[in-house]
Write a structure and sequence with these properties.
Layout lengths: L4 H5 L5 H8 L7 H29 L3 H29 L3 H25 L8 H22 L5
Helix pairs in contact: 3-4, 3-6, 4-5, 5-6
């Protein structure tokens, strides 16, 4: 049975982007949507983490180097959680998927927060990428929360 994507997207930080992500999978059940969201989240964190790492190695600004180092660490931690969520989804441990999603979302927000704390008034060359990661993290949180609530999978 497919799960209505509007029930997911209206709860996210960016419903329009959520619809773009999930509309091609409108006939998927909730567990399949969870798998798609986990894979998309993993890809976003991996690509953005690599971009942050490249900025970290190139910058001469010590404040930005600190920010990039912290973000790389947050993203690595998030990827560990995402991998764990992938395994928990396969075995139906939806509470564990939800816990992982919440950690991933906190890691994403923490990276964004390091800019305000450690590099205020600096231009953020990865603002769009970190915003995209934050948005996909919110989709992950919503899907995992619905899964863990016992909704029909």
């Amino acid at each position: 049975t497919s799960y209505p994507i509007e029930n997911i997207c209206r709860q996210t930080k960016n419903p329009d982007s959520c619809y773009k992500l999930l509309t091609p999978h409108a006939n998927a059940n909730l567990q399949e949507i969870g798998r798609i969201v986990i894979e998309t989240t993993s890809a976003k964190f991996t690509l953005t983490g690599a971009l942050i790492e490249s900025y970290r190695t190139q910058t001469k600004d010590p404040n930005l180097k600190t920010v990039y180092t912290l973000c790389v660490n947050y993203y690595r931690s998030a990827l560990v959680e995402i991998n764990g969520a992938r395994d928990k989804l396969k075995t139906g441990q939806f509470g564990g998927v939800n816990a992982a999603a919440n950690t991933v979302s906190r890691d994403s927000s923490a990276c964004i927060g390091t800019f305000a704390t450690n590099a205020p008034n600096k231009s953020i060359p990865i603002a769009k990428e970190t915003s995209d990661v934050d948005y996909i993290s919110s989709v992950f949180v919503v899907v995992s929360r619905i899964l863990s609530s016992g909704a029909v999978v």
